Prior knowledge:
By secondary structure, the chain is mainly alpha-helical. The protein has helices at residues 13-23, 30-38, 48-55, 59-76, 98-105, 115-127, 132-139, 144-152, 175-181, 189-192, 201-226, 234-238, 250-255, 283-312, and strands at residues 80-85, 88-93, 130-131, 156-161, 169-173. Helix 1 (13-23) packs across helix 4 (59-76) and helix 6 (115-127) crosses helix 8.
Amino acid sequence: MSDTVKIPLPRSLQEIVGALLFASETPLTASDLRESVRAVEPEEGESAEVMDVYRTCTNREIGEALKGLEKALEVAGCGFALVCTGGTYRIQTCPSCGRYVRAMLKLDRPSRLGRASLETLAIIAYRQPITKGEVEEIRGVDVSANIKTLMDLQLIRMVGKSELPGHPFLYGTTPLFLEHFGLASLQQLNELDPTLQRSNPRAKAALYRKAAELPLEEAAKTEEADKPAAAPDAPDAAAAPAETAEPADETDEAAGDVVIEKVGEVVSPPTDDDDFFIDDTPDEFDDEDDDEDGDAEDEDDDSEEKDEDETDD
């Protein structure tokens, strides 16, 4: 009776991960790889301890295996590499070998996007979610044909509706966009050109909400501006910064509460305890008042003398 040939166990978790990615027809996430490794049960005669190491692998260990596989393929220079697009991993041929692969498979050269479509796609990628009107405002031309082309190629899609009047559609990129351009995530767009920074989707969503509420806020601000300004209270005026007022004269210090009013200075309002009286009547009218008072007294004296004479008669 001949002995059955035993297949040796994998030497490392990195070896298992590489085999899974090579055999998969679709890209796999780290969770998919972890579940596939844990699903294998030990067979008879196999080392249970070794199998338990693989069956208890964590996401962190899967991530380290992926990094090791990526470096190994890069060093080997075997014509294919590990690529991460949109959180999924796959093994694909290097771009430099693409022409030879197309010649073997007798494939036509892939069509290229025109400059107008590329500009529209770049604006949507960096400013998503964005409406067609905003794209046209940036480019200055109609982009209806470009957006239709990009949607037919499944590079962009409608991701919702805006809060702006009319509720126009919002456009964003698809996972195929990341796969086509070899990007792991949209965050890598900022690394391509430091002068271009991708907008924050949450901030843009808040901006759309604010734009709808803006007319109400402007109306409220207009009402507040039309209201007359309230006069400051006495304590607030007295508590004004000292540097806005100049030191009072010696005469004012002697008076105690008297403050000379000057332009641009803070004036303390009089209180009930003030006993002084300021006569602001011009001096030129004081003499006239005295003359009138003197004439009035003389007339009173003459009338009194006439009354006495009539009484004597």
